[in-house]
Specification:
With about 425 residues, the protein is an alpha+beta fold. Helices cover about 40% and strands about 20% of the residues. The chain has an eight-stranded mixed beta sheet with strand order 1-5-6-11-10-9-7-8, with helices on both faces. Helix 1 packs across helix 11.
């Protein structure tokens, strides 16, 4: 007999007791994005390799070492998407979404793929939600996008997230800064890790993001882009900060935020949580006005992506419990099983989350199940209750129970769900 086939390293199953947590985060975020006028799109999981090579940049770690790339049966090079922004801009250009008028506000969710070293909160298949505002380069757009992200964390009940912002300049001011940076790094080359030494000529800005302690120590006095901005970039950054201050969004300036993708310019930002260690970004993004030019168009944009796995970890560490079903409807007799199902159905139609037994188990077994699920209220119905039009409500939090009219259960539930 053949051995058990296991999941590939870095590709994890998400069992029911975890999957619904992903869904909770995604649904709340989906509702939040829609309040700002964003609409959901569905993007392909596989794209032409050229899209990411040209869009992200051939000198990035993602393109050089992390992409899942293969030839299809026609010999075309395809890649499992490592991120969503390049696909979103490609879809905008190909689909003629400029005809929508104004800013194209879109968001998407789904799996991304990178061949990285698996660790807590980071896998080779991971889930992201991304949001993009394509079609306007105004700093007010940047300010609202960062504010939207901050407000989302508050809605999720996560308040110990720090938002960091920076400006990466533009093609006008970046070349002179790059020359000064390369000169500084060449003098330090022997003190840097092997990866940083390789990046000095082809991607020096990425060195600022190195997590190796000795590199971080040696780079304490490194020149930063924010001190070399041209007049337009400096004004843009000032306006972004003005918007964030006006919207009461707390933030800190971190001049070493560079992001790992070549397409970023001007505004860059991260939302970090210290409990995640060196890989501490829960969400990150920025402006990418030059991305479209790399893939056949010319349109500005800004957006971010947030990692669902990492955000779930933060919520759990905070002790914030994602809502479980409010009710378990249990049947005390065989005759009451259909009645229990109809009560559960009615409660669900009123907006409640409800579990019920479908395995014809004893009442004692049903109560044990409800207790294991941490469901506080069990609604019990048997032959006597059916005859009287009542139910027994058992509260596990204080181990009490009372018999109430079925209509009262429904009216109380409706009142709670309207709040």
């Amino acid at each position: 007999m053949s051995g058990l086939i296991k999941a590939i390293r870095g590709f994890s199953d998400v069992p029911p007791e975890e999957a619904w947590k992903y869904n909770y985060i995604e649904e709340l975020a989906r509702e939040h994005f829609q309040k700002y006028g964003y609409r959901e799109v569905r993007l392909p999981v596989v794209e032409a390799t050229e899209l990411f090579a040209r869009g992200i940049g051939t000198a990035t770690d993602i393109v050089e070492k992390e992409m899942y790339t293969f030839l299809d049966r026609n010999g075309q090079s395809l890649t499992l998407r490592p991120e969503g922004t390049a696909s979103a801009v490609r879809a905008y250009l190909e689909g003629g979404w400029k005809s929508w008028g104004g800013i194209a506000k879109i968001f998407y969710t789904g799996p991304m793929f990178r061949y990285e070293r698996p660790q807590k909160g980071r896998y080779r298949q991971f889930y992201q939600m991304g949001l993009e505002a394509i079609g306007a380069g105004h700093p007010e757009v940047d300010g609202e996008v960062v504010a939207l992200l901050h407000r989302l964390f508050l809605r999720l009940g996560v308040e110990d997230i720090t938002i960091l912002i920076n400006s990466l300049g533009c093609p006008v001011c970046r070349p002179s800064y790059r020359s000064e940076l390369v000169g500084f790094l060449q003098d330090l080359a022997e003190e840097l890790c092997s990866n940083c030494r390789k990046r000095i000529e082809k991607n020096p800005l990425r060195i600022l993001d190195c997590k190796v302690p000795t590199c971080r120590e040696n780079l304490s006095d490194v020149p930063v882009m924010i001190d070399h901005l041209c007049g337009e970039c400096s004004h843009h950054f000032e306006r972004v900060r003005y918007c964030l201050d006006g919207l009461d969004v707390p933030y800190a300036i971190d001049p070493k935020i560079v992001r790992g993708l070549d397409y970023y310019n001007r505004t860059a930002f991260e939302a970090i949580c210290g409990r995640l260690g060196s890989q501490n970004a829960v969400a990150a993004g920025g402006r990418y006005d030059g991305l479209a030019r790399e893939i056949g168009g010319d349109v500005p944009g800004i957006g971010f992506a947030m990692g669902i796995e990492r955000l779930r970890l933060v919520m759990e560490w905070k002790g914030l419990h994602i809502p479980l079903p409010e009710f378990y409807v249990a049947s005390a007799t065989e005759n009451a099983r259909l009645t229990a199902m109809t009560i559960a159905d009615k409660l669900r139609s009123m907006g409640s989350r409800v579990e019920t037994d479908l395995e014809t188990r004893s009442l004692k077994a049903q109560l044990r199940s409800a207790n294991r699920m941490n469901i506080r209220t069990v609604v019990i119905v048997g032959d006597d209750e059916i005859a009287k039009g009542t139910v027994i409500c058992k509260d596990f939090s204080n181990n009490t129970q009372q018999e109430i009219p079925l209509d009262e259960l429904f009216s109380k539930t409706a009142a709670v769900n309207r709040r």
